[in-house]
Amino acid sequence: MTDPWVALEPGADPAERVRVLRRAHETFTEVGTVPQPVRAVVADSWRRSARAGVGPDGTACVELADGDLGAYRAEHPLARVMPLFRELLGTFAADGEHLLAVCDAHGRLLWVEGHPTTRRRAVGMNFVPGARWAETAVGTNAPGTAVAVDRPVQVFAAEHFIRQVQPWTCAAAPVHDPRTGRVLGAVDITGGDGLAHPHSLGFVQAVARAAESHLALLAPPVPASDTPELSALGRDEAQLLRGGRRIRLSRRHSEILVLLARHPEGLTGDELLCALYEDESVTPVTLRAELARLRRILGPGLLGSRPYRLTVPVESDVAVVERRLETGAVTGAAAAYTGPLLPGSQAPAVVRLRRRLADGLRTALIARRDPDLLADWAHAPWGEDDLDVWRALAAVRPTAAVRSRLAALESELSAPSALSARPALSARPSRPAWERRPQR
Q1: pLDDT of 418
Q2: Architecture of 14-218 per CATH?
Q3: Single pTM value for the model
Q4: Could you state, in order of their start, the residue ranges of all structural domains in the chain?
Q5: Counting Cβ atoms within 10 Å, is residue 421 exposed (0-12), middle (13-18) or buried (19+)?
Q6: How many CB atoms lie within 10 A of CB 189?
Q7: Torsions phi, psi of 113, nearest 5?
């Protein structure tokens, strides 16, 4: 197969592939191993689904309904491109007896439209507006997996983790904010086996790109600012916006800029060495070379020396979250927190800052007891194994899905023997979930 994101290679027999996948699915749910020919993207998704406590006989939970759903959809950025989605995908969905679906970044379905008969069938598995179809809720599926891995993806038949969904095939692509690059949600086409074709994946990806272009046209122009803006949350490579120019930084340069932005007074070479490197054998020459490369990338007039410092104030998303927490603006802090700080970084000072920021925010969320804020954290990749947050969420929103996930987490903690016996289904990561790399 030339494209691992396409479900069926040319010439494959769909019926035979379904039989093979069903046997593979049963093997995984029984013993925790993934046999061939399950694609790597699906195998990884099955493992994530199992770690999240999803059962193969589960179903989606409707979290938003009626007025709550209407208000949320009206304010969501993707509402502005729904006419475009309908124009490009609506007729295709209706004529082919498929469904057009759009979800948010947490996998909640916002719109489900298309052929009336197909919509009625989809109601049986709660593929309806307001239902959560994130991987952590219902396992492998195209819209949920697309936002989890930030890639267009097809899911064919028994590649779905939940058996109830296995008669369906779907293709979805994430849609990004054209200014920040953040995932806003995904656009999906769901129907029968005929969608397991490279054209459906390419089509939905083209629609997602068209939506991003349309959003860029609708967005007001960003005024040039004298204050550079550093975005480092939820990404391994920070981005600096300076005078309308976007600069993508390497991981090491990202670490340096994050630390210098926090220390406007500057840092000596020795202080930077201790902050950046666990290995004490790293020499000052290595650091000076990194700083010289960074100075060339940033351009003149931003990076000073003796001590190393930023010569103008730099606004960072880390500082925004910290300021809002300090003033008690928990909702605003949660909105600005788009993921762990440089999650792949092992620089000692960055690790400490990453943990302090996440711990401060989650503590504030638990104290606030707002069910929507807690749910957003718990269903994010960094919160899916956060036992304290799930307990707080269960106290204020004790739905069956929340209680089930909490029970699974508590069972994992209390049963180490079961943990070692079925590693693929119940093993938890050695690091906190919020400290793991995001799926980007």
Answers
A1: 43
A2: 2-Layer Sandwich (3.30)
A3: 0.63
A4: 14-218, 321-435
A5: exposed
A6: 27
A7: -135, 160
